[in-house]
Amino acid sequence: MSTQSVPVLAANDAASYLDLGITLALNNWPALTLAVQSNWGGPTSDDKRAWLCGAISEMLTERPETDAEDLEDVLIQVMNDEFDVVIDDESAAIVAVEIMEMKQHTDRGNFTEIQAMWEAYQLKSQQKSASAAMFKKVDAKDEDQETDDESDEEGEDVEMGDAPALVRAPREKAEPEIDDDGFTMVKKKR
């Protein structure tokens, strides 16, 4: 489930806000983002991230005793099993604590933090797409210039001059060595 397809949430739907918060936390986790972008989990890496979002949501719903350490263990295990990534930078603990804090907020009906995260994520996505569009525009402009330059040069021969001759010192051929029995010694080439 990508965050762009997140439906508009009902004003007081705590479970939906928690799902959104989990999705945002995992999409903002650099280790998982790199693993997905690099397809370390195979061609279905994005689907695995979406599955992880749902699995965490389900775990928090079905096992309310879950704490940040349990969640950290799950994150580390999934990264290792599904993406072949060993997390040793404490980032899984940070993400786990962030998700557990969001759960506490949503349990109290406080959704402002998740709403702020969603707005920041949308702004970041818009900036990325604007940057990508600018890059494409500049890249297309460069291609137009190259074709103009190439068409100016077509049909024209450029004088390169003569290349310098390769100079090598002549090799001295080694005389074969003949031992006392009349056999020729074989030497290794260097």
TrEMBL record:
UniProt similarity note: Belongs to the TSR2 family.
Alphabetized UniProt keyword annotations: rRNA processing
Organism lineage string: Eukaryota, Fungi, Dikarya, Ascomycota, Pezizomycotina
Biological process according to GO: rRNA processing
Protein name: Pre-rRNA processing protein
PANTHER family according to UniProt: PRE-RRNA-PROCESSING PROTEIN TSR2 HOMOLOG
Compositional bias segments (type: Acidic residues): 141-160
Region of interest (Disordered), ranges: 134-190
Keyword Metal-binding belongs to the record: no
Cleavable signal peptide: none
Pfam families in the record: WGG
